Amino acid sequence: MEGTIGTSKLTQVALIVKDIEVTKQKLARFFGCPVPPHFPGGDYAITQTVYMGAPAPDANCLLAFFDVGGGVQLELIQPNGVASVWQDFLDQKGEGLHHIAFNVKGMDQIILSCENFGMKFVQKGNYGNGSGCYSYLEGGDGLPFIVELLENFKHE
C-alpha cells in the first residue's frame, strides 16, 4: 500500500501545545516513562524555513519527542508566536493533533504527487541539525490533518 506518498508506514504523530514543559511532564506520567528534553527547532541559518512561499527566519518552536513503540514518535511542538504552520494551528484550533508524518525519498516528486491529489504545500525547512528536511501539506478536502514528509539526507 503506497498511495500518493509512496509509503503507508507512519513515523510520527505531532501535537501542538501551549506549554511544552507542562505537557511533557503530564505525558511522561501517563506513559510511565522519563520526561524527554525539549529543544528549539533550530537556527534559521540551518533550517531555512519557508512559510507560505516566503522565507520565515523568525518562525520557530520548541520540540520534544516520546518514542511510543513500533518506530513511531509522539512529537510535541510549542510555537514561538511568529507566523508559521505551527502558530496558525494554535491560534485557529488551539492545542491538538497537528500532523502525521512519513519518511520518504524524493521529496520534490512526492510534493507534486500530493498537490495533484489536492493537498496544499504550506511550509518546509531543514531539520535543526541539518541531517534532513521536512515539508508540510494541508490535507485538503477529506483529510482533516496536515501530512508531514520527512527526508533524511543520508539514506540507509
Question: Could you describe the 3D structure shown?
Answer:
Helix content is 23%, strand content 37%. The protein is α+β, with helices and mostly antiparallel strands. The chain is built from four helices and ten strands. The chain has a ten-stranded mixed beta sheet with strand order 2-5-6-1-7-10-9-8-3-4. 26% of the residues are buried. It has helices at residues 20-31, 44-47, 85-93, 107-117; strands at 12-16, 38-40, 50-51, 54-55, 61-69, 72-79, 96-103, 120-126, 132-138, 146-152.
Outline of the structure:
The chain has 156 residues and is α+β, with helices and mostly antiparallel strands. Helix content is 23%, strand content 37%.
> What ranges have pLDDT less than 50 throughout 5 or more consecutive residues?
none
Helix content: 10-25%
Cα end-to-end separation: 21 Å
Shape: globular
Q: What gyration radius follows from the Cα positions, in whole Å?
A: 15 Å
**Spatial ordering of strands, largest sheet:** 2-5-6-1-7-10-9-8-3-4
Strand coverage percent = 35-45%
Number-wise, the strands total 10
Structural class: alpha+beta
Q: What value does the average pLDDT take?
A: 94
- What can be said about the biggest beta sheet? 10 strands, mixed
Supply the number of helical segments. Answer: 4
Topology order in helix (H) and strand (E) letters? EHEHEEEEHEHEEE
